Amino acid sequence: MSDGDRPLTFSLDGESVPFKAGQTVMQAALAAGRYVPHLCYHPEFKPHGSCKICTLKVNGHWVTSCTLPAAAGQQVESRGEEIDEKRRTLVQMLFVEGNHFCPSCEKSGNCKLQAVAYEVGMLTPRFDHFFPDRPVDASHPEILLDFNRCILCELCVRASSEVDGKGVFALAGRGITKHLIVNSESGRLADTDIAVTDKAIEVCPVGVILRKRVGFAVPIGSRRFDREPVSEQALRDAPRPLDRAPRGGE
Amino acid sequence: MQGAATIPPADRKRRLESILSRHGNARTELVQILREVQEPEGWIRPEAITTIARALKLPRARVEGVAGFYSFLHLKPGGRYRLRFSDNITDRMAGAERLLARLCELLWVERGRTSEDGLVSVDTTSCTGMCDQAPAMLVNGWAIARLDGARIEEIADLVRGQRPVEDWPRELFAIEDNVRRKDILLVAALAPGEAIRAALARGSGALTERASNERSWREAIEIAPQGARAVLEEIKLANLRGRGGAGFTTGLKWEACAMAPATPRYVVCNADEGEPGTFKDRVLLSAYADLLFEGMTVAAYAVGARHGFVYLRGEYRHLLAPLQAVLDRRRREHLLGASICDQPDFDFDIAIHLGAGAYVCGEESALIESLEGKRGIPRNRPPYPVTSGYLKQPTIVNNVETFCAAALIAVHGGAWYRGIGTARSAGTKLLSVSGDCARPGVYEYPFGTTVAQVLADCGAEFTQAVQVSGASGTCIDQSEFGRRIAFEDLPTAGAFMVFDETRDMFEVARSFVQFFAHESCGFCTPCRVGTTLLRKLMDKLAAGSGSQHDLTQIVDLNHLLQAASHCGLGHTACNPVLDTLKRFRPAYEQRLVTLDYAPAFDLDGALARARAMTGRDDPGAHFGAGP
Q: Do B541 and B506 form a contact (C-beta atoms < 8 A)?
């Protein structure tokens, strides 16, 4: 779908970004090499729009860029202190509603929440911690669930249902009591049909779903986000249906 | 009626199977199934969740997740008598907290806990829509209003005597309509079928052209009955706007749905009247049900729908049987069902879904999710319900009052309706008046009526403030009582809560903040965490340890919630605080300690639990008391 020979584009912080019909603002931005911070979005899954870290302005209105369809001529702003401050506050909110102790967490360095916190320049938690009571589930011989670190992105819920075809995870509760549950009458992971090879395990961006006995196989300091910031990795992972600089009349 | 007794496992199993088969094992019926399964025992057993999941072919965790979303569905046993006090500010003003404490005392139970013998639990719930006869409560889901000392004693006796709720005196459950001022809508005495026949007559002569198979919207437009088109035109001409709060133009909504190519299409009535301080739909549902169903049938005719739903809030459980009876009568009268009014091919019927205690389901896309048997999470938009609503089919969702007005327009025409009210707000508006006034109840006014007029009519004196349109609405002070009820000035979903000069407006705002924190669906980060942060900040101010810094934090949170929240709940959650902060700042400032920053942590308060456990409250058990 293009208007004559000209590809569809919108303006992102003054630069022209091409997009294909059906792409969202964030998908097009990432494909064009422009990072927009995010946590619940994953290129392999349908955008969900719950973490709101990717909030930015389109034509002067605040929107969720991972779910908003891109449209020709949109004026998109994703830079500036006003936007950065909002994203930082949202990350701070995620930190204080759960129990996140990076220095003692085996996911440190591989954790997307931690990486995005660095990316958006979070230096303090700002708000008082809620210290929720969230017992861990160590019932399964090979997999540990530490709900203290859950950010409710639903990636495991989506992966288990859409990729693994199992429905091991679901959300229960409402509001601030919303929490992750597993698919068994006992409520224990050991009584579900989860397997170590499930996509649901791989996709957890934080330290909730962990394979046992491999936590420190890679030493802190040489882990995923120790080597390269999350922004660069996200750009590399983004599907690129378009050339970086598309030309008309191909 | 809900009895809350233990029943033998074999009966339980039989009962569950009969409920499942009655609902055809349909996933869309999940919330209804869970509610019905829960009725006899007051909670849903884990093995029942497993059975339901198997029957509906859903992962068990999904079913558990749905049950866990709604305040009135329970996965753990509570008291056999579950007593819940309505906790709107108007209930508190009428003495609800004192009565709750008294009831706990009489029953030897701690608030929020179940008694040791499993007999009873006493707690609060969000506004139950009885503000005109506050304080009110729900007993195993059944509403009791006009609570006072004598009623509390009587309820305590009934519970202690273990009388089944169905044997309690009928007069305890009597709910008054309290209609105080009638205008065009509340005086309407339409004969059953009058609006439908009027709608059909608008296209007389052209009705037989309707094609049974409308393959495209262009084709549909060409061959849609002229009657349907004529009704749409009248609704547009009337300039009827949605009465649920958002004020979207009803004619445009219906037209977009009618033009959507997909079929079937659905007509949904939003009777999930959850906004604190609103109860006018309760009165329409109780005393004007025919007018509502008439309006829904007219809508079905206009958009070409065969199925309708009423999503009735769980708090109005007592209205379910009377509404079903009206539907049954209308079926017998050929005003519902196949070939309505002998019109070939005009088939329409209405089912009632009962909600289960979730304010957010008043948001139309969350309501649709709940109708589909899911957690009530607002959807990402676009697409909008008019093209992709219930089961992804074109759907209109309108408020109870909107459908009632549409029935009137079908009879009297759009021009007549447009002549009432103001240029931009046609027709009348029902107000739910409550709080500090002599005559609380439902008042119908033409749009454009001033706040001062309403205050005079309801007998309000020494009024300090009015909260218009509920917790998510606007709080105005004396200087603004000349403002008008209208979309262009003070838009409202109907709530009109009056506060006299003795009221502490900080506590009013704090009660609304508690409400939003309790009702946030939890989908998006800003609302889930932000509403709780706001509640904690207000608690900090209430505890007398607030500072200027906290007021700044509140303003910052508001900006974030407005910018980043997923739906209107988050967008408006800070309104009560901002409005009162602007107009009643001294109510806040008198609570601040004169520092730029003060910590929320209270050293002496942290010892409270230890004091309770040891039964001490002497000076030596407090910090800073000295030896």
A: yes
